[in-house]
Design a protein that fits this description.
By secondary structure, the chain is largely without helices or strands. It contains one helix and two strands. It has a domain of 70 residues. Helix content is 10%, strand content 8%. A two-stranded parallel ribbon has the order 1-2.
């Protein structure tokens, strides 16, 4: 069942066994794994099914090294799917490969 919290009565309670915060790659994967388990699973998403610029203000932030990365609001989304809705597979190389067991 899908709920839109803007239409729920104030003070409403939704019962569940598992609550997943965020419908990005990890949240949707976990929900899919739990599907059919018998557990009542709730996925909470801050945005809706479509991108709305006015919902993105909470994602604003700063980065320590802006020569390598853009600001967080450019690569995260408050919407169904989270960052996967815009993810192009960008990969940033690391000067610390030893941290990952790579020589």
């Amino acid at each position: 069942m899908k709920y839109d919290t803007t239409t729920l009565e104030h003070g409403s309670t939704i019962q569940c066994d598992v609550c997943i915060v965020g419908s990005g790659a990890a949240g949707v994967t976990l929900a899919g794994e739990l599907d059919g388990s018998g557990l009542i699973t709730l996925v909470i998403e801050a945005g809706g099914a479509k991108y709305l610029a006015r919902q993105q203000t909470a994602l604003q932030g700063e980065v320590a090294n802006d020569s390598s990365h853009t600001t967080p609001d450019m690569y995260r989304r408050r919407m169904l799917g989270g960052a996967t809705s815009i993810w192009g597979g960008r990969s940033q190389s690391s000067p610390h490969f030893a941290d990952f067991g790579v020589a």
